[in-house]
Amino acid sequence: MSETAIKPRIEEIPLKEQLAQKLPVLLVPVLAAVGLIAIGNPASWLTLTVAGLAMGMMIFIMASGLTVVFGLMDVINFGHGAFVAVGAFVGFTVLAWLAGWTASPSVFMNLSAVLIAILAAMLVTGLLGLAFERVIVMPVYGEHLKQILVTMGGLIVAQQMIYVVWGPDELHMSRPEALQGSLVIGEAAIEKYRLVAVGIGLALFIGMRHILKNTKIGLLVRAGVENGEMVEALGYRIRRLFLIVFMTGSALAGLGGVMWGLYQETITAHMGSEIMVLVFIVVIIGGLGSVEGCFIGAMLVGLLANYTAFLAPKVALISTIALMVVVLMWRPQGLYPVVKAK
Amino acid sequence: MLTRLLSGDTPRSGLLTALLLIVLISLAFAPFLFPGTKSLETAARICIFIVLVASYDLLLGYAGIVSFAHTMFFGIGAYGTALALSTTGPNYGSLIWGTAAGAGVAALFALAIGLFSLRVKAIFFAMVTLAVASAFAVLVSQMSWLTGGEDGLNYKIPRELTPAFKLIKAKVFDVSINGKILAYYLVFFAAAILFLVMLRIVNSPFGRTLKAVRDNAFRAEAIGYRVVWYRTTATVLSAVMAALAGSLLAIWLRYTGPATTLSMEIMIDILLMVVIGGMGTLYGAVLGATLFILAQTYLQNLMGVAAEATSAVPVFSTLVAPERWLLWLGVLFILSIYFFPTGIVGRLRAGRA
After folding, report:
1. Nearest residue on chain B to A326, judged by CA atoms?
2. What do you get for the CA distance between the two ends of chain B, in Å?
3. What's this model's pTM, rounded to 2 decimal places?
4. What is the CA radius of gyration of chain A?
5. What is the pLDDT of residues A127-159, one digit of tens each?
6. Do the beta carbons of residue B127 and residue A284 sit within 8 Å?
7. pLDDT in tens, A253-283
8. Residue ranges of the domains in chain A?
9. Alpha-carbon distance A132 to A69, whole Å?
10. Alpha carbons A264 and A282: distance in angstroms, whole number
11. B126 contacts on A by Cβ (under 8 Å)
C-alpha cells in the first residue's frame, strides 16, 4: 500500500443549503404561532393545538408505512385504507371481549386492554399485509397504472369483507374509563386521550428514526430507497426486506385505525377511504418516501385542520388542500424529496 | 360512409360488431322494445354512462393517466345545468348556458389540476385528484345555500321534455309518445354524438400521439412532442366530456345531488366499467357500461334469489347477499387486471386474430 491512499473527499454542505434543509421543520411552530394570533384566546389555542398534534400523530402513524413502502419499492398502496378499517374493527372487537377490563376503574387494567386490542389489530393487519403483498401487489411490480387499479380493487374487496364479517352497521364504543375526560390546565381543557395519542405518536416517530438511522435493517431500507438494485447486487434480498416493510406499514395502519377509532368512538367500513384522503395529502406534502417529511406534513395538516375547524368550520378540508397546493408551489416534490438514483 | 362516421376505427371482430349492434339497436328503440319506466331509466343511464366511461377511458386507456376526480367533473356539469334551470327557470336558454358553463368550469378545473400535477408521476396525479375530488364533494354538500347540500336540487326542465307533454295523440306500438320519450331521445342522440366525437379524437393524430406518450413518455418527449401539453389537453377534453355527460344526467333525472354525481361509489363504478369493458378502446366503454348497469339493475335480484336459496348455509348466504355484489365485482376487477388487461373488447379482438 502506498502512502498516498486515496481518501474520499466529502464536501461539506454550505451553510445556506443546510438551513434550507432545516427550513420545513420551522413550519410547524410558525403555523402554531399564526394559529395563536388568529384565535386570540390562549386557552382555546392550547386545546386546539393539542388536538391538532394528536390528530397529526395518528395520521402520521397511518401515513408512515405508506410512504416508506413507496420509497423502497415504488409501490403506492391505494388499499392502505383497508388496513386502517380492519385494524379498527379488530381492535373494537377485542375491546368488546375485554369489556370487564375497560369498565374497571383501574388505570392499569384499562391500558392493558387497549394494549391487547392494539397488538391484536396490528397482528391481524400485519398478516393481512402479507397476504395483500403476495396476492395483489407482487404480480404488478413496476407498473404504476396496474398497481393503482389493483390496490383499489383490493380496497373494494376488503371493505366488502368487513361488511360480511362485521355486518353493515357502524360500531360504537366508548373509550376505557382512564382515557375519558380531560385535564384542565388553567382555562384550557385537554382530553386525556389526545395526550396519549401524542405520546404514542412521538414514541413511534423517535423509534422509527432510531431504527432507520442506527440499525442495520434501517441502513438497508435507506439504501434500498436510494438505489434498490445496488443493494441487491451486494447480496441482500430486497424483496424480503420489502415484505417486512410492507407488513410493518400495514400493522402501523392497523394501530392507527384502533387509535382513530377510539378517538372518534365510531367506526365504519368506509373510515379507511375517508382517512386516506388526509393520509395522501400528508404523504404528498412530505415528499413521497420521506419519513421526516411525512411527520412534518402530518403535524401541519393536523394543526391546520383543527384551527380552521374552529375559525371557519366550512372550509376545514379545503384548507388542507390549499396547504398542499402552497407546499407544492414552493417545493414541487414535497418538503423532503427523496432523490432516486434510478 | 359508416367507416368515416366511426373515424376508421371499426370494431374489427365479428362478435364484437354483433354485440355493439345489439346494444345500439336496443338503446335506439328502447322505449318500444322494452316498455316500462324501469327499463327506460336503465336505458338512459346506460347512454349517459357510456359517454362518462368513454371520457374516462380517454384518460385512463389512451393517455395512461389515473384520475379519481372524474366524478367531480361529472358533478360540475350536472350542477351547472341544475343551477341554471333552478335559478332562471325551465327554458332552453338556461339549459344551454348552464351546460356550457358547467363544461367551461370543468375545463378550467382540469387545466389547473393538470398543469399543476401532471409534470410528475402518474401516482402523484392519482393522489392529488383523489384529495381534490373528495374536498370538492365535501364543499358541495356544505354549501347548501347554493347546492341544496346533501338533499341536492330538484328543478323543472322545459315542458316539452316532461311526461305531461304529448307529442302526438295516437300511440305508436302501444307506447304513448310523451315528453319523457323525447327526453330519452335527446339523451340518446347527444350521447351518440359525443361518443362519435370522442372516437374522432382518439383516432386523430392527437390521439395517436397520446398513445405514444402513454407507452413511452420519455421517447415521445425526445421525438419532440410536449408531453405535458398532450396530457393536460387529454385531461381537459375528458373533463369536458364528463361534464356534458353530467348535464345529460341532470336533464334526465330532473334532480342533482351529491349521491347521484359526486360520490366515490360512482368513481369506483366507472373504474370497474372501464377495466372490465377494456382499457384503450372506446368500444370497451360501451360494453363495460352496458353490462355493468344491467348487472347493477338486474343481477342484484338474482343474487337475492341465490341468498334466499342458500340461507341455510350461514357464511355463504351473506357472501351472495345482494348488497355484497360489489365484493364479487372487486374480485372480478382484480382478476381482469391480471389476466385480461385489455378487457372484454381486447379478448374479442385477440380471439379473431
Report:
1. B116
2. 25
3. 0.84
4. 21
5. 999 988 888 888 877 777 788 888 888 888 888
6. yes
7. 999 999 888 888 888 888 888 788 889 889 8
8. 42-268
9. 13
10. 20
11. 76, 78, 148
